[in-house]
Structures are given as C-alpha cells and as structure tokens.
Design goal:
The complex is a heterodimer of chains A (126) and B (267).
Chain A (H helix, E strand, L loop, with lengths): L1 H39 L3 H14 L4 H13 L3 H14 L4 H27 L4
Helix pairs in contact in A: 1-2, 1-3, 2-3, 3-4, 4-5
Chain B lengths: L6 H23 L2 E10 L10 E10 L6 H16 L3 E2 L7 H7 L25 H4 L9 H10 L4 E25 L5 E25 L4 E15 L6 H20 L2 E10 L1
Parallel strand pairs in B: 2-3, 2-4
Antiparallel strand pairs in B: 1-7, 4-5, 5-6
The chains are: A mainly alpha (126), B alpha/beta (267).
Chain lengths: 126, 267
C-alpha cells in the first residue's frame, strides 16, 4: 500500500512546491511593481525596501536584483549595486537589459576606481 | 492650406498609423520601464575638516598673452562659489612666482649658487621642467602655515599653470557637403593635409592643509585644442575653452558630483 502511494505523494509534493514557488514569484512581483511605481516618483529608499523584500521572497527573481542594483547605484552604494547586478546576470545571463545596465554601471564604477587609484598614487601625506 | 492625399500616400499613412498603434500597444504591455538616475560620485578628497578654501595663486608659464595665475584663480574661485559648500576666501592673488624666486629651497644653505633669482616672464617658461626650479615653494610648510593662519586655516589650493602655444600639421578628416549629378546633397568625409595651431593647458593642482602647511593631495591635468590656421582664435578664449574641460575634474576633487544617466527597471 505505501509503495503504491509513493508516486502519488511525489506528484503531490512536486505540484505543491510549484504552487508555493508560483506564489512566491507573484508576491515578489507585486513588490517589484510597487517598487517601480515609487522609484518613478523619486522615492528610492522605499523602492530599495520593496526590491530587497522581493529578493528575500524569491531569491531566483533576476528582475528584482536588477532593479535593486539600479536603486543602489542611484543612492551611491556602488559596491552593493555591483553585487546585485552580478546576481541578476547570474540568474538571467541572456537578458540584454540587465547586461546594458551593468555595462553602464561598470563605466561609472571604473571611473571612480581610477580616480581613487590616482589619489592614492598622487597624494602626499606629511 | 490644403493637402492633397493620393492613394499611395494614404496607404503609407495607414501603414505608419498601424505600426504606431502596434508600438504604443507593445509599450503599454511592456515589462520594462526606463528611468533616469543620478549616480553620486564621492569627492576624491575629504574636505570635511575645512570650512573655507583659499585659491592662493599659481606658478604660471607658457605665454604672456594670458595671465595664467590671475585668470586661473579668478575662474576657480567663481566656480567654487557656485558649486561647492566651502566658503571661498576673496583675497589678493599671491604673486607666487615672485615669492618662489625670492626664496631658497628649504635646507639649501646660503651660498653663491643659492642666490634668489629674478622673476622670469611667463613666456620664458616653456615646459614643466622650466617651472621645476620654483616648485620648492609648495614644500615650504612654514610659508603655507603662515598663509593658513592669516586666513583662519583654510584648505589652500595652489599649483602650476602652463599655457603654451602649439601647432601641428598632418592629415585631418573633415566633413564636406557635395552635390551629386542628380542634384542631391550628401555629406562626405574628406581627408586633407592641414596646418593647425592652438594651445596646450597643463595644470597641476596642489591642495595644502592650511593648519599644518603640508600637501594633502595633488593632481595633474592636461588639455589641448587645435584650430584651423585661419581661425585666429584669441589666446584668452582658448584658455577658457580648455578650462571648461578641466574645471569639472577639479571640482570632483572637492565635492560630490552626480553623473546623469538612465537605466531599465524590469517587472
């Protein structure tokens, strides 16, 4: 009897996990959409909160990491932005929009690094 | 005014309208959203310890047509007044070349070879190497400390300005408008040999702590501009053009700059 039930149980668990992950994605999507609407109004801190929530609810949601990276960038938290972009690209390696955002970010980040390096090499402390 | 629309035009118009409707429809359902952002780039130098900045003066060379010392001081002061939180000290520009000429490098004993020299004309100083014998003034901590005490311990900005005439000849690509046998206008790239003249601006900014008289940071910047030989661009106007390129980089040392751009948010 238990042997006969095994495939049913497996099927049930698989179906349930699908439902749970679909639920997580739809919850995360709601957070992402709300984040976009507040970011459009300039409320970037609130947007960061929403997108951080989205990445906690569904850590496989690449768009949430992309948006979070954009918000970090806007707030000047460049290290965090870089990490979030990398995570987004890992989840969605073929997404041209994420890639384009990351390229633009790298341009600014590299420039900042260059100026910091030149400061280190040129500064003369007493 | 009446516009006549024939059948072909109507067809094209219909097609255009259809594609526009499709585009609007696609954009409406789009799962992305382009948003403008401003990325703050932190200042290279932490100036939180200072409330005032004193653009003291510069060792200037290159040409007699532009007073590199006075013009640079004036321009930097006006830019800092607009774009920095530091209070800009409005005082006479230091005749730094005279000061450097009349003083000896620190630690150099008085002797026949260590006599104060005459102040040279800017046009006599053609290269950075020519300015080097006067640069000991930047290491004179006592001098800068005295200046600092006089102006309530500001951040002092000084350095060198070398604004030199420059000419170059070679192949240059430019765009030329041509009209083909059918009377259509086209723009074509044309390469031609050209004599050009202009100026090179080399600036070294030295930031000194007015409390101790010591250097805290220095940055060297260089820009050049060449004009068609027939243009007769005045030296002063070229100097301002070159300073337009240099000033944002100077300001980014002292204050946070914002880089504008746009990114795509995804649903």
């Amino acid at each position: 009897m238990p042997r006969r039930l095994l495939p049913v149980v497996v099927l049930l668990v698989t179906a349930l996990s699908g439902v749970v992950s679909a639920d997580a994605r739809s919850d995360a999507k709601a957070q992402v959409e709300f984040g976009i609407s507040v970011a459009a109004k300039g409320l970037w801190k609130e947007a960061i909160y929403r997108w951080e929530r989205a990445t906690q609810i569904d850590p496989t949601y690449g768009a949430a990491f992309n948006n979070l990276a954009v918000a970090y960038e806007h707030e000047g938290q460049l290290e965090k932005a870089g990490e979030a972009y990398e995570r987004a690209l890992k989840l969605e390696p073929n997404n041209a929009m994420v890639r384009q955002n990351f390229e633009l970010f790298k341009e600014i980040h590299d420039r900042t690094n260059q100026s910091n390096q030149s400061q280190n090499s040129q500064s003369q402390t007493p | 005014m009446t516009v006549r629309i024939n059948r072909t035009n109507l067809k094209t118009l219909n097609l255009k309208l259809l594609s526009l409707t499709l585009l609007v429809g696609v954009a409406g359902c789009a799962s992305f959203y382009e948003i403008p952002i401003e990325t703050p780039i932190a200042a290279k130098l932490d100036v939180s310890a200072f409330q005032r900045v004193f653009i003291a003066g510069f060792l200037a060379g290159g040409t007699d047509d532009v007073d590199g010392n006075v013009e640079t001081v004036r321009l930097l002061r006006s830019q800092l007044r607009m774009k920095s939180n530091l209070r800009v000290i409005d005082a006479d520009v230091l005749p730094l070349m005279d000061v450097a000429s009349s003083s000896r490098p620190q630690g150099q004993a008085a002797g026949p070879g260590a006599e104060p020299r005459e102040t040279p004309q800017p046009s006599q100083l053609k290269s950075e190497k020519d300015l080097e014998p006067f640069e000991h003034i930047f290491a004179d901590a006592d001098y800068w400390k005295r200046i600092g005490e006089e102006y309530q311990n500001p951040l002092i900005v000084t350095g060198t300005v070398l604004f030199t005439p420059h000419s170059q000849s070679g192949m240059v690509q430019r765009e030329q408008e041509v009209i083909d046998p059918l009377g259509r206008r086209r723009v074509e790239p044309v390469r031609e040999y050209m004599e050009r003249k202009g100026f090179i601006l080399q600036e070294k900014f030295i930031f000194i702590d007015g409390r101790s008289g010591t250097q805290i940071y220095s940055e060297a910047l260089r820009e050049e501009r060449l004009y068609n030989q027939n243009d007769n661009t005045p030296a002063l106007s070229s100097y301002f053009e070159l300073m337009d390129e240099i000033i944002p980089r100077f300001l980014s040392t002292l204050s946070t700059q914002r880089v504008r751009g746009s990114r795509v948010l995804i649903k």
